[in-house]
Amino acid sequence: MLEASLAPPLLSRAFSWENDGSWISALTLALTIALELWCLRAVLELSARRPWLYAQAVALNLLNNCLLGPLAYEFVQRFLSPPLPPLQRAISTCLVLLGHAVGYYAAHRLMHTRAMYWIHTFHHKFHMVIPSAANAVSLAEFTIAYMAPFVLGCALLQPDRASLFMAVSFISLNNLLIHTPKLEQLSTLLPWWAVSTADHANHHRKQTTHYAAPTISVDRLLAAVFDKN
What we know:
single chain, membrane, transmembrane helix, transmembrane
């Protein structure tokens, strides 16, 4: 009882169900398991060829989703605004999505430079995507590319609780979907501005294209603006 009373408020709230981040983490893990079962053949193939890699992926999913994710989510609560009217909430949600897409793209391009690739090396051990690879990233990558865009976005945009919950849930869902091999062919039907499973699978195979993830294709938006041909 004494230990609980001495626990820092951030820690005590971060790992309670009062923190929306705990719910998103739990739902993300549940959906990861469901998609892994759906793609069982690919999962079994990888785990048979590289069992240690798959074991590390499972461990990083638990660590990133159950520890770092809820902590970061609780931290950004201080930046949230009071409840917004419906239209402002929709705009705020879209701005958080766009901000995260740009932030992730910038971090991802940086991690593909010679100096910073060490951060991203583990994720690219998955030449073939599987759902658990979505959150199988180093702690440095999870912090810089996954969480930092949310923290900066919330500090600048100050969404309300519902806006943040919807944006993070949508991003987490899409992160799993673009790592689900059974969706590769179907995903080609998505609109041009959306990141598809096919795009991201191609990135894992080549590592020199389709850096955007997991929602808005910043690659294509930049090409549309700056490509003169």
